[in-house]
Amino acid sequence: METNKWGKAYWVDLGERVGSTVVYGLITLLTANSVTEITPDLAWVIVGLPTVLSLLKGLAANMRGPEPSASVVNVDSYGSDPPNELPPG
User: Fold this and answer.
1) How far is Cα 45 from Cα 87, in angstroms, rounded to an integer?
2) Distance between CA 46 and CA 29 in Å, rounded?
């Protein structure tokens, strides 16, 4: 069975990532507003640019492998049973 790389699961994954970037940017914007005057240019740098970059990264990540994912990290690389302890060191 072939997986649809551009199916609903992928778009939900990407939406969560981009949406959280918007929320983080808005929190930063509100925090910065207490320190300095926010101009439209500054708002773009704080919220808009990171959101666009998050979207582009998620689109590019989905094109790199056979499985649909907005993540650059291959979660399969952790294995099915991650260790419960950190290695000594």
Assistant:
1) 40
2) 6
Is 25 in contact with 47 (CB distance < 8 Å)? Answer: yes
Q: What band does 52 get if pLDDT is binned at 50, 70 and 90?
A: very high
Q: What is the predicted pLDDT for the residue at 75?
A: 61
- What is the rounded distance in angstroms from the CA atom of residue 51 to the CA atom of residue 23? 10
Residue 77 has pLDDT above 90, yes or no: no
- Rounded distance, CA 18 to CA 11, Å? 10
Q: What is the token pair recorded at 18?
A: 């981009």
pLDDT tens track for 4-40: 889 999 999 999 999 999 999 999 999 999 999 999 9
